[in-house]
Amino acid sequence: MIKQGATMLNSPAVWFPDNLAAAWQLKKQLGGEASFIAGGTLMQTQWQKGTDCPRHLISLEQIKEMQGCERGNFNGEAGIRIGALTTLAACKDHPSLSKNIPLLAEAIRNVAALAVRNRGTIGGNIAGGFGDIIPALLALDATLSFYDGGKTKLKRLLDCLSESDGSILTAIYVPENKELGGKSYFYKKLGYREAFTPSIVTISGCCQLNEQKEIEYIRLAAGGGTTPPQRLAGAERLVEGSKLSNELLKSLFQKIKDEFNAATDMFTTADYKKTVAANMIVSKIAGFAG
């Protein structure tokens, strides 16, 4: 383990543990004066907005088991494992992800500028709670792996959105049976200007229609900006098993507006975000009918 001393009066000390147990022990010793850090892009943004810097930073970048992408098994099910320290750029360019999970690759292409993707990690985007790739991972039924100081545990991403117990996010799993294959997918980020700006609304989904235009499978998610990402389970239940029609799409539009818990900010109202999200999702699903 290496400690890098502070070079400026107000600069934090940076620690470099090389395994999860050491990182966890450091956080216990340093308590509230320390924060974990991966790529550091989110924390840098917070500092620029005036957030106080912690006295100690525990860098996770030397922990090998939190890096890379590979196919494997978890809970007896085949899938793809993405280490939480894998950069967004590496995820986007990885052959297995580009081929088998194009939805995730598309989402990452729309996150931040290239320089940020080269440094920012997939785990950091999730851990921040408002990352633009979270809707895509919700649509993929992703599972997260956490280290709690004694063991590694798995939790569905959907179950982690409203809770945080201080555990270290180590990996993201996408089950093989959720790789999109013959399903249709979509991802759309509406920003203020370029793709690398914070979004107003981000939507994502996965849908499968049979030959009779009945919706056999669907996952819908939305978020963006100051609105936490969320699965639209009620909208999914409304349309799953039903034949796609204009009436169904109208009902879906209203259901999304009712269900999407958007937040008003200094630029846009919650109602505007609800309407935009509903319009974008309905438009994408209508397009699948040909």
TrEMBL record:
The keyword Transferase does not apply. GO terms for molecular function: FAD binding; oxidoreductase activity. Residues 7-179 form the FAD-binding PCMH-type domain. Gene3D superfamilies: 3.30.465.10, CO dehydrogenase flavoprotein, C-terminal domain (3.30.390.50). InterPro entries: CO_DH_flav_C, CO_DH_flav_C_dom_sf, Diverse_Substr_Oxidored, FAD-bd_PCMH, FAD-bd_PCMH-like_sf, FAD-bd_PCMH_sub2, Mopterin_DH_FAD-bd. It comes from the Bacteria. Keywords: FAD, Flavoprotein, Oxidoreductase. It holds the Pfam family CO_deh_flav_C. PANTHER family: XANTHINE DEHYDROGENASE SUBUNIT C-RELATED (PTHR42659:SF2). This is Carbon-monoxide dehydrogenase medium subunit. It comes from Neobacillus bataviensis. The lineage of its organism: Bacteria, Bacillati, Bacillota, Bacilli, Bacillales.
